[in-house]
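Support reply, case 0932

Customer input (verbatim):
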Amino acid sequence: MTRTSHRLLNVFVTGAVAALPLAATILIFVWGARLVVAYVGPESLIGGLLKGIGLGITGSEIVGYAIGVGVVLVAIFLLGLLVQTRLRDVLAALLNGVVQRIPLVRNIYDLVKRFVDLLAQRGDEGMRSMHPVWLHFGGVGGAAVLGLLSTPEPVRMGELDYLAVLVPTAPVPVGGGLLYVPSGWVTPADVGIEGLTSIYVSMGITSHQHIRRAA
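Our regenerated output:
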């Protein structure tokens, strides 16, 4: 390879690396948009219900779908206003009373409700026990994986204490797996939640911006 071709290749690789974070971000938004369309778009089951709401007013499927979406949004807004009043506890009691009588539904509802309540807490209250950590496979000095400690309280299995660590996936960190690993394999990672997210979304390209700064 000549010096000119090598320089041109370096320029191309540099440009590709610089464009990768933006490309990954666009791909994530495209994936999210396609997911939304698949579940609530005009051709989905929910979309059909929304069109049914609006078709009683207009004969156009597109306009009917838009009217249906508007009706649902207004209903959600009105529900929000209602929840902010003193009737919140009454509504919650009535809903729980109905749902808790259905065996399978109540299990799923309880799980989803706990997750939503966790995300809805103000500030860092909902995530106060979760922070980034390094997971060293085989102990400190082994392969290191950046994860999220779900709780600092270990669980005892056999003769060892284990910690629950959430390991995201790249470039979409909303997925991943939950691993129980020996406590000695886990060390703090002072990169912050935003740093952890940035590293995974960029597939490691922004590692030096967060890990070196934390060192």
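We compared this against your earlier run and they match. Two observations from our side: The chain has seven helices and six strands. The two ends are 38 Å apart (CA to CA). Please reopen the case if you see a mismatch on your end.
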